[in-house]
Write a structure and sequence with these properties.
The complex is a heterodimer of chains A (about 220) and B (about 450). Chain A is built from twelve helices and no strands. Chain A is mostly helical and about 220 residues long. Chain B has about 450 residues and is mainly alpha-helical. Chain B is built from 22 helices and eight strands. In chain B, helix 7 crosses helix 8, helix 12 packs across helix 22 and helix 14 crosses helix 15. The N and C termini of chain B lie far apart (about 60 Å). Classes of the chains: A mainly alpha (about 220), B mainly alpha (about 450). Chains A and B meet through helix 2, helix 3, helix 5, helix 9 and helix 12 of A and helix 3, helix 5 and helix 15 of B.
Chain lengths: ~220, ~450
């Protein structure tokens, strides 16, 4: 188990990070090239000011029609994304790992608080899963790709929590947690998870188009 | 539930389906997806999270609350996303379903942009579906006929050049009884503005030309109307997906204005024509902006009022409500100016809710009403929310500065027995303005 864990956090982690970063750069570069070739009529109107305005607006919960009129989605969505970000960046065990491997780390939030964040994030995943089953507007169009990305995020949070709270074998859960994390890294550039780096562009365009061309707003 | 259960017969769609072989379908889809569009479509398909937030935006899905196949995301999933997923390997019957969704169950009103967290431009994707269907000749007959008319005559209504010019002279002559000395100046070079209308005005709403002439005459405007093809600013080809003709129409319109050396173009109270010059037509022609400045009637009336050139004898007393057309308000931010004009004219204005850029579409726009009688029930049953929104205002007059909105709202009013009627801004201004004693 130990050797497997060391392999997972060693060579496998390097492979995962390389694919994630390399894949993301490749996707952004190739999509950017394609956009310049074929989407000039959209790119022509893009501007930073409107892009940032739209982005900020949609980053604030309940500040757009979409968020206001879908309250459960809004809460679950923000809890999930903020929870994942906090866990990755400010969880003490992750910071120990960053420090051990790269000699850099961010300040850590108290473990008790992070436990609450993790549980809230898992609950948010469950709510989003419930929506995909019970809310017909979502269930009607949900595909395997949607379940896959949700499953990965739920898996990484659950195994992370389990490994630090004695649920199941600690070593096994830690290994699973690392593997889930690495699958996420590998899949991020090529699956639905790519929204992590593509949404800034879709929002930037919609903000620019709505504010400058349509002279109104996109919220 | 699902488009398969609500297919409607249409002669042109049936003819197109007959000739659409699987090979041709695949080729057309691939040609468009690989040759005409690029990263936007790819990214939208990939990042649409299928959350269903857009269901709260669309009047079709709100009016069919129990049927998720009417949500914007379902329409994308069933059409363009399916084309991408299958790499164009589809049957003619599947394209037929897609055509009915794209042409008759989406007004491309863009209300959903306020609801999509990702920022997917759903109307753009639906217009792409129409483009593909049109290239396969699978387009509803009635709207295809207007597009054919555009191709043959450069106007939407098969009007001959002499009929158009005669309509202008006829209206000038009519107006002389009421406004001695009035002119509808045809082809006057160097005028301040060229006034352009959609072809249905001379065809069956000719009084609108009369009214516009009366308003401009009383306001002392230096204006002209063109006699040449290109006078019609409408563009149904934008909605069928025939972008080649769309581009030609826009070019002809602007070249006419340039030929007449006018300072700008004022467009009549039409929404889609306005959309065609700031959104789709100009982009097809690779123009970032218009070669000649263009403003919509809402804004022009606003200018005339602010300059004190429109004088009214009294305000309209019956309570009115304002319908914000998608293409001028959600599409071009004219909500405030529209309100300024209506409040100047009317004493009692009751806002409908939601309003401004969040207003519900009339369900006629985007070429849906132009798909004709076979699909009338689609837009009426699909806009129950509009009927409720109108009814809740408790007024009898709806001010709607858009032709398509008029048609759509009148149908809704009649279908749901709302006891209301619609008015253009020009109708009210003409009714209230100071007229010469004759």
């Amino acid at each position: 188990m130990n050797a497997l864990y060391n392999f997972a956090v060693g060579p496998l982690a390097w492979v995962a990070f390389t694919i994630c970063i390399g894949g993301t750069i490749w996707r952004l570069w190739s999509l950017g090239r394609l956009a310049r070739e074929r989407d000039a009529s959209a790119l022509a109107y893009m501007n930073w000011k409107d892009a940032i305005t739209s982005f900020v607006r949609w980053t604030l919960p309940f500040s757009t029609c979409g968020w206001r009129e879908n309250p459960l989605l809004t809460v679950a969505n923000f809890v999930l994304h903020v929870g994942v970000l906090l866990s990755v960046l400010f969880y003490s065990a992750h910071n120990v790992m960053w420090d051990y491997n790269f000699g850099i780390s961010l300040p850590s939030l108290p473990d008790g608080f992070m436990d609450a964040v993790t549980i809230a994030t898992i609950l948010a995943c469950l709510i989003l899963a419930w929506r995909r089953i019970a809310v017909s507007a979502s269930s009607h169009v949900t595909r395997r790709a949607d379940w896959f990305s949700l499953l990965l995020v739920t898996g990484v949070m659950v195994t992370g929590f389990a490994s630090t709270h004695g649920v199941g074998s600690e070593d096994f859960m830690a290994l699973l947690h690392v593997l889930f994390g690495e699958v996420i890294l590998v899949c991020l550039p090529f699956t639905r998870l790519s929204h992590a780096f593509l949404i800034p562009f879709t929002r930037a365009y919609m903000g620019s188009e709505s504010i400058s061309v349509r002279r109104t707003c996109d919220w | 539930m699902g488009i398969e259960k609500r297919l409607i017969d249409d002669t042109n769609i049936a003819r197109g389906v007959e000739h659409a072989t699987p090979e041709r379908i695949t080729k057309v889809i691939r040609d468009v997806l690989k040759g005409e569009v690029g990263a936007r479509v790819k990214i939208y398909e990939e990042t649409c999270m299928r959350c269903g937030a857009c269901a709260k935006a669309c009047h079709f899905s709100l009016s069919h609350a129990d049927d998720p196949s009417y949500t914007p995301v379902a329409k994308l999933d069933k059409t363009i996303f399916k084309m991408i997923r299958t790499k164009g390997k589809l049957t003619a019957d599947q394209i037929r379903e897609m055509a009915q969704i794209a042409y008759t169950e989406c007004n491309m009103c863009r209300r959903c942009i306020h609801y999509c967290p990702v920022g997917v431009d759903i109307a753009y994707l639906i217009s792409l579906v129409r483009r593909i269907c049109n290239k396969l000749d699978i387009t509803p007959a009635f709207i295809q006929d207007t597009a054919n008319s555009h191709s043959g005559t450069f106007n939407q209504m098969w009007m001959r050049e002499d009929e158009w010019i005669d309509s202008l002279f006829w209206q000038e002559e009519e107006a002389r009884d009421e406004f001695p000395g009035i002119r509808i100046p045809v082809d006057k070079e160097g005028a301040d503005f060229m006034y352009s209308v959609i072809a249905p005005e001379p065809k069956f709403r000719t009084q609108l030309i009369y009214q516009a002439a009366a308003i401009f005459h009383q306001a002392g405007c230096d204006w002209t109307m063109p006699s040449q093809p290109g006078w019609d600013n409408s563009d149904m080809c934008m909605f069928t997906g025939n972008y080649e003709i769309m581009g030609r129409l826009k070019r002809a319109h602007f070249e006419l204005a340039q030929k007449l050396r006018v300072k700008r173009i004022v467009m009549g109270e039409c929404g889609h024509a306005f959309r065609s010059i700031y959104d789709q037509g100009n982009r097809w022609l690779t123009w970032k902006d218009s070669p000649v400045p263009v403003i919509h009637s809402i804004e022009f009336f606003w200018e005339l009022i602010n300059e004190g050139k429109i004088k009214i004898t009294h305000q309209y007393q019956d309570p009115v409500t304002i319908h914000d057309p998608c293409n001028t308000v959600r599409g071009r931010g004219l909500a405030d100016k529209l309100r300024d004009v209506v409040h100047f004219l009317c004493a009692n204005v009751v806002e409908m809710i939601p309003n401004r850029e969040h207003n519900f579409c009339c369900s006629a726009g985007g070429g849906v009403i132009n798909c004709g009688p076979p699909f009338k029930s689609v837009r009426l049953e699909g806009n129950r929310v509009k009927a409720e929104q109108l009814r809740n205002t408790g007024v009898h007059t709806v001010v709607a500065p858009c032709h398509n909105c008029h048609g759509g709202l009148e149908d809704i009013i009649s279908h749901y027995k709302l006891g209301m009627h619609t008015k253009f801004l020009g109708d009210i201004i003409y009714e209230l303005m100071e007229k010469p004693e004759v």
